[in-house]
Design brief:
Oligomer: single chain
Strand content: 15-25%
Low-confidence stretches: 1-51
Radius of gyration: 45 Å
Helix content: 55-70%
Number of helices: 13
Length: 546
């Protein structure tokens, strides 16, 4: 974007420099230039903002962008949602099931006896069935069904034709040994719910790791930029010294060899700047990857806004260890894995039992249809005197009025002659539980080691900052003294260049120590499991469908 700004110009047709020298006094010129810069600065800033070439980011903004756009985090976000869908699918087992069946059949067959029919027998039948079944928490099932049938035939000697029949039936079944109890009937739900909790803790750990990765990339970019600035300052010092040496050679107070050494140092520091610029680009690319800005060509540069702070934070190992044991999401995940294996072991133990089941049934049949009246009430006469109509609803009335009551009870026992597979599953579940317990113990040991290292890093990095700060201050004083000695002819270019390089290295070391201290505090939050609390990030289970 090109911005053109017209200024009120009183001087025409002459070069600015000539007019300024002839018509403007020096203070007026300074005021004019300052005003011009003040006017141009907002326009330049606006142009950069509009073109989107520079992205100014605070650490908080970088974390927010990562939580929104990081691909690894977006992948992990789907795991709790998938686990929650598994819970919903497992709960469908206890939803009532309604089923309908309908069938119609027409048969024609040759008559085998003149008593049945003279030529052929035709039979039409229809059947309707409605059933509702429900699994119950004890492992059994309840059911209610209604059957209704209609039969119409051309066969002789029928007393009811067409005939309507219905049956209202109640059933109950319950396992008494294997698969008995709420734990067994809800095992799929229990496992799915535990896996959902595990996925939530895994997501929390991924979020904390992502936040730490953002902080690490952000502060490394800050360090790379500051290191580049330090190298540039060192180059300017070397160039100033080179310029002074050239002037000294011209007036004959210094040998040309000293100029060569200064030129060599300038070249060396220019090489340092090239390496520092590459380090800046690499650090910026790493931050881009975490923020998912790798392919965003509209942002040419990421510019960190925050500066590393150096504030002492007191840490105690035992206190930090207790905090970690109460907050680490991966530790809770390991404990849930143990619970899962304990539950699987109880299920496998239950499957070793024989199968004993109890069932009960209660049903009420009904019958109706057109009643055929024969001579002397004897169908064999074949003489039909009349028909008493009977509707289809009569059979249903008999069933619902429980006119004919029937019931049955049954016990069924199945004892396998060999349960090798069940015993193998039980043995496998025991080994899996032992493995989960060992993993939990190993996780606790790993947490203790991580907390111990994190606490030590905070303490040592704090001491490093203090030591490097003193070293940097001494390097500044040494350089000032050596420059004064060089001015008086009591030192050499080599010593001044050496002290300049020492100062640049000390400034870089102090900055690196401050960066490391900030990162060690961020890592301490991560290993304690308090990152979300420290960053004021609220964890909401948005995937819940209850």
């Amino acid at each position: 974007m090109i911005i053109r700004i017209r200024f009120p110009v009183l001087i025409k047709e002459k070069k600015f420099k000539e007019v300024a020298m002839k018509r403007l006094k020096f203070p007026v010129l300074i005021i004019y230039l300052v005003s011009l810069l003040l006017f141009l600065f907002p326009a330049i800033a606006w142009a950069q903002k509009e073109t989107g070439k520079v992205l100014n980011l605070t650490l908080e903004e970088a974390v927010a962008r990562a939580l929104k756009n990081n691909l690894q985090l977006q992948i992990q976000l789907l795991s709790p949602e998938i686990a929650d869908l598994s819970v919903s699918r497992a709960k469908e087992r206890f939803f009532p099931t309604l089923s309908f069946n309908f069938s119609r059949r027409s048969t024609v067959q040759a008559s085998y006896s003149w008593l049945e029919a003279t030529d052929k027998t035709m039979t039409d039948s229809e059947s309707y069935q409605t059933q509702i079944s429900q699994q119950i928490p004890t492992g059994g099932s309840l059911g209610i069904s209604l059957n209704w049938d209609r039969t119409d035939t051309t066969a002789r000697f029928q007393t009811i034709n067409p005939r309507y029949s219905s049956t209202l039936r109640f059933t109950f079944s319950q396992p008494l040994l294997r698969d008995f109890g709420p734990k067994m009937s809800r095992r799929e739900i229990i496992i799915a719910q535990t896996n959902l909790e595990i996925s939530e803790y895994d997501l929390k750990k991924t979020i904390m790791d992502t936040i730490y990765a953002v902080e690490d990339a952000y502060w490394n970019l800050v360090y790379a930029i500051e290191n580049l600035e330090v190298r540039r300052q060192a180059l300017e010092l070397a160039r100033e010294l080179l310029q002074k040496n050239k002037m000294a050679v011209e007036i004959g107070t210094m040998a040309p060899l000293d100029v060569l050494s200064a030129e060599a140092e300038v070249a060396s520091r220019e090489a340092d700047i090239i390496a520092a610029e590459v380090q800046v680009k690499n650090a910026e690319d790493q931050l881009r990857r975490i923020l998912n800005l790798t392919r965003d060509e509209s942002i040419l540069e990421i510019r960190p806004v925050d500066k590393p702070r150096f504030v002492e934070q007191k840490v105690d190992l035992e206190e930090c260890l207790q905090i970690a044991l109460q907050n680490r999401p991966d530790l809770f995940s390991s404990k849930l894995q143990v619970e899962n294996q304990e539950f699987n072991l109880s299920v496998a133990r239950n499957q070793l039992l024989p199968s004993l089941s109890f069932s009960a049934s209660y049903w009420s049949p009904g019958l109706s249809g057109d009643r055929i009246l024969y001579l002397n009430d004897n169908p064999l006469t074949g003489v039909i005197l009349g028909v008493i109509p009977g509707g289809a609803s009569g059979a249903l009335k008999d069933s619902f009025n429980f006119k004919y009551r029937n019931w049955s009870l049954a016990l069924s026992l199945d004892i396998p002659l060999s349960n090798a597979f069940s015993r193998a599953n039980y043995a496998q579940a025991k080994v899996s539980l032992q493995q989960a317990l060992l993993r939990l113990k190993n996780q606790e040991e790993q947490i203790y080691l991580e907390v111990k290292n994190a606490v030590r890093a905070v303490q040592s990095n704090y001491q490093r900052v203090q030591a490097y700060r003193v070293a940097r201050e001494l390097a500044e004083k040494k350089l000032e003294a050596e420059q004064e000695k060089l001015r008086l002819g009591l030192s050499t270019n080599f010593m001044v260049l050496t002290y300049q390089r020492d100062l640049a290295n000390q400034r870089t070391a102090e900055l690196k120590a401050i960066i490391d201290y900030n990162l060690s505090l961020a890592n301490l939050d991560r290993v304690l499991g308090t990152t979300l609390k420290t960053k004021n990030i609220e964890f909401i289970n948005f995937w819940k469908r209850d």
